[in-house]
Amino acid sequence: MNSNEVFNGIQKIIKNIIFEVADISPSTNLIDLGITSILFIEIIVSIELKFDIEFDDEDLLFDNFIDVNSLFEYVVERKVFTL
Q: Which pTM does this prediction carry?
């Protein structure tokens, strides 16, 4: 899995949860997308399942993930990918 596949996977997860999103870039702010704390947890669980990772409990603060890129970097740090 390469970095484009990771980003596209995260983008797809967000689009499946927030149906009215047209475009998502790495700098897209999660709050600007209308993501609430409940939706945030839904996104985290979906990412864990898709990429077979587990978010550390102490990292599960909405403030730790202000944009799509921060989610992307977290996934990449926890997986071994062919980048």
A: 0.90
For the chain, 83 residues long, give each residue's pLDDT as a single digit of tens: 788 999 999 999 999 999 887 789 999 999 999 999 999 999 999 999 999 999 999 999 989 999 999 999 999 999 865 44
Structural domain for 44, as ranges: 3-78
3-state secondary structure 20-67: CCCCCCCCCECCCCCCCHHHHHHHHHHHHHHHCCCCCHHHCCHHHCCE
Structure tokens at 65: 């993930």
CATH number of domain containing 12: 1.10.1200.10
| Residue 29 β-bridge partners | 67
Residue type, 52: D
